[in-house]
Every structure is written in C-alpha cells, then in structure tokens.
Amino acid sequence: MEQAVATRKPATKRKRTLDDAVVYATAHRIRIEALSIMNDAKTSPTEIAKILDEDLSAVSHHIRALFEDGSIESAGTAKRGSATEHFYRAVTLPYVTSEEYEGMSPADRREIAGLIVQAIMAETLAALRVGKMEGKREPWLTWQAVPVDEEGEKEISKLMQETYDKADDIKVRNAHRFSAAQTKARKMGQEPPPPGTTEIVALMSYERSRAGRPDLGYPPLSVD
C-alpha cells in the first residue's frame, strides 16, 4: 500500500540556511545526480542507488541530508515486503506571474529563487560530469552583465517571457511530431522511433550582486 503525502522540512527545523543548502546540494556528485533524477519524478534511495551504481547507504545519507535542508520533499512511502521504502522528489514549484510575485514576501521570493537555482545547477553540473558539454551536440553557453536603466529592465523581462513562450511552443510541437511518428510506426507494424534527447533550457535575468569593478567603468556601490 503506497502513501503519497508530500511533505517538506519546515524552514525553522532545517540544518542550513537557504544559500548554504543550495551550495551543499550541488557540492557532491551523488547529490548532483540524485537531484537531477528527482527533477523528473519521485523516486527512492534504492532506485537512485541502482541508477547510479552506488552503495545504498551512501545514497541514503545524501538523500536524508537534502531532505533535512529542505532541498527536496518527501513523496510518500510504499511497503516492499517487510520493509518500508521512502520516496522523494524535487520540490514542486508553481509558475509565478508578475502579479503574484509582487504580492509575495521577500522570504518566499528567496525560497523559490533558491530552489530554481539549485535545479539549474544540478542539471548543468550533471551534464558536465558525464561529458554532455563536449559531445557532438554543441551546447549554447553564454552569459553577460548588461547595464540597464528602468526601460532596459522591462525589455529584458519581455525578452525572457518571449523566449520562454517560444521554448514551450517547441516542446509542444515536438511532442505532437513524436506522437504522430509513433502512431504511424504502429500502423505500419514498425518499431516506434526513439524519443530523442532532452534539452535543458534555462532562462535567467536578475540584478547583479554588485555594480562591477570601478576600473571597468562601473560606479562603486555606495556604503551606508
């Protein structure tokens, strides 16, 4: 009998602060790979240990630490013979509109931002570890610090939204093509086509932690 009540460690009972938890979560190969797996669906330490070909006790240790930090959430239990198997998954996050963001507290904003950064870091580091960054598929890796005024901030936000929408459209069109190809193959008695690869598309824009080095033309930050 499976119990599927999702729970997350309350902030007041976590071992680490949010920023320390994000750094810790992505500072070990087992935690990186486990987070990537849990981004897909709920799973157990036993299943993760099999996928990674790692010792179960080591994997369980890292999963417990992630849960204690609030980096993942419990996704219920299931009886496996005389034992109880625990399941975990990435923290479920809603899509937050600009209006909803305005109504959120700074703590809630920080919480969501930290979890998104953690997910992106885990996926990126996992891909780097297994050589996906230097394979035949050329990755798109770029970033830049863009000095902007208030109008520029709005333009960047609009660009992010438009790019997100276009990526979502590509996902939908690809799903339709794959479904049509599968249907055609079944009708012709052929093997269905492989699903292809999964692309990680990360869109991020945010105010930099500092203005930049004064010797590069940026004004120094004022100190109160």
Describe the structure.
With 224 residues, the protein is mainly α. It folds into two domains: 2-129, Winged helix-like DNA-binding domain superfamily/Winged helix DNA-binding domain (Arc Repressor Mutant, subunit A), CATH 1.10.10; 150-216. 48% of the residues lie in helices and 10% in strands. It has helices at residues 18-25, 29-40, 45-52, 56-68, 98-102, 106-129, 150-187; strands at 2-7, 72-80, 83-90. Strands 1-2-3 form a three-stranded antiparallel sheet. Strand 2 (72-80) and strand 3 (83-90) form a beta hairpin. Helix 3 crosses helix 4. The chain starts with a strand and ends in a 37-residue tail after the last helix. The relative contact order is 0.10.
Q: Structurally, how many domains make up the residues? A: 2
CATH topology of the largest domain: Arc Repressor Mutant, subunit A
> Strand sequence of the main sheet, in spatial order?
1-2-3
- Helix proportion range: 40-55%
**Alpha carbon gyration radius:** 21 Å
Mean pLDDT, nearest integer?
A: 90
Query: How many beta-strand elements?
Result: 3
**CATH top level assignment of the largest domain:** Mainly Alpha
Question: What's the CATH architecture name of the largest domain?
Answer: Orthogonal Bundle
Overall spatial form: globular
Low-confidence runs of at least 5 consecutive residues: none
Proportion of residues in β-strands: 5-15%
How far apart lie the N and C ends? Answer: 59 Å
Q: What summary fits the major beta sheet? A: 3 strands, antiparallel
Order of helices and strands: EHHHHEEHHH
CATH homologous superfamily caption of the largest domain: Winged helix-like DNA-binding domain superfamily/Winged helix DNA-binding domain
SS content category: mainly alpha
SS summary, helix count:
7
